[in-house]
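_Per-residue structure_
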Amino acid sequence: MLMATLLQIIGTLRDIIADLDAKQIRALHSGLDPSITDRAESERIQALTHRVTAESQLARVNERRILLETLWEQAHNNVHRLSRHPDVSEIATLPAGPALPQREILTTELPTGPALTDIAAALGKAEEFNVAEDRRAREWQQNLVPAADLQPADEQAILLAATRLTDAASREAALDALTKNWTQSPETRDALVRLSIDNESEIRKTATRHLAQDWADDDTARQAVIAVTRDPDPKVQAVAVWVLTQAWRGDPAARDAVVALTLDDSEGTRETAAEGLVEGWPGDEKARDALLSLVHDHARPVREATLEVLLEGWPGDVVVRDTLLGLVRSDDIPIREVAADGLRVGWPGDASVTAAFLQLQNDDVLTIRWAAERRLNQEGIPLGKSLSRSAGSGSRRSLIQSKERVSSIDDRLLIASRVPYDFSTEKPIEAALALRRGIGFGSGINVILGGNGSGKTILLQALAVQVGAVSPDDIKRFRYSPQIVLQLARNLDLLWHQKPSAEECFYLNPESPERWRFARLEEALSEEKNYRLFLLDEPMGAFDTGMVHQLSGRINELAQQGCQFIIATTDIKRIKFTDGQFIRIGRRRIRERGSFLSW
């Protein structure tokens, strides 16, 4: 704006000077009063002086423009250096507009024929403005560009300072940038140690991961990661355990930190510790002894995880074998089941294990008898008293339970299901792995828990085919792996206490529209129907809270009246049951959960 005004003034003065020159020439040739010529000369000199002043002010503006453009280019280059880090997204874009301030300098337009006094006033304002703007430009020059372009060390210093900002997103962005370009800098390591106790869990996880990846030979980094194993967030704990097993595999201090987690109050943490010990310290006696204590854990998932890792990391270990042989005589049935299954798959040809299973083949617990039967079959030893089977239609078979082994007050319909131990599907499913060991069902409500893809729907559909609630032709129209469903149905062994007829079995298909599913389930649960076995896949769907309470209440009532429910779901929070048995299918090992760490 000022530059345009000054150019306008210079142009106007040029016209004034030309007019005054013409006036003087006319006065000389016409013989006018000399005073007129003198006044014209005086005004001409004044106009020339104003023009010099205006051109001087214009030069100052132009110099300041060049300076500001240089400063802008300097700042732009520095921002461009930082913007190469994709996560540093908080750096604002520099304005693309003019470098000079755009505000009006003169309050009014110059008149068409301005008096020289008006121009003098305008130039006075231009001088005041130029003085102020020159001072601001010098301050910017001193503050923004003390010496040269932003150097890499200065860039790192800025990012290190940003890791102390109160804004979590800025700290995380600075952390990501540091770990891309300054991985081996001691200052970066110190920042990672500090951020491993940040109040944001995602930042703690990222810092912990990079301490292990970039500083595996550094004792300070190792101690910081060991400290993170005591983090209050189980997910952060799991990251710390995983990176310890990878960066400090075999390290005694790291092992002791993971061993300490086997005593944690959290079931998930104890399970993580068990998996971590086999990842980082297989064959280690201290790790083995800590795991053997977890075989007695009150949480079945922890016991199962412990058994799995003991067999994986300590195959053939005599101490593990003797511990399991002692546990199969425990009064705690779930612990006996875990021990029997571990002995079944380990120590082939071991005489003491074979002798134990010869006794266990007549055990009162079905799953233990199953384990004994399979181990003795593997050894080629005839069964002294095997479970009898009766043929069903086609290739389907049913296990017949001896009367003396089922209590007279047992109101279960389906007691258990299993598949042959060598059963497999083209696409592996976690439900098939659980069925190899056998899945037991309780009376009333049974809830099968598992993530998407674990095989809950496939299991329920195979059961529905077995009991006659769904025909094989109907299954072929379903989208959930119909061929695997039919394969599983053909290989399922079902153990019944009271086997219902096909008309007494109800199956709810999760593929049906929500409104239709609610109406169909509501009808099936009504008093007019006589269903006894309900196979329900995600029965609560996306129903509202009122519908969920209504359906849950009716399911609870029917369970108390002797009906049996087998329900598959991924969301336990949506169901409101007063009592029931939970069956978990599949779990993600820590090595799978830690795969994102690029190890």
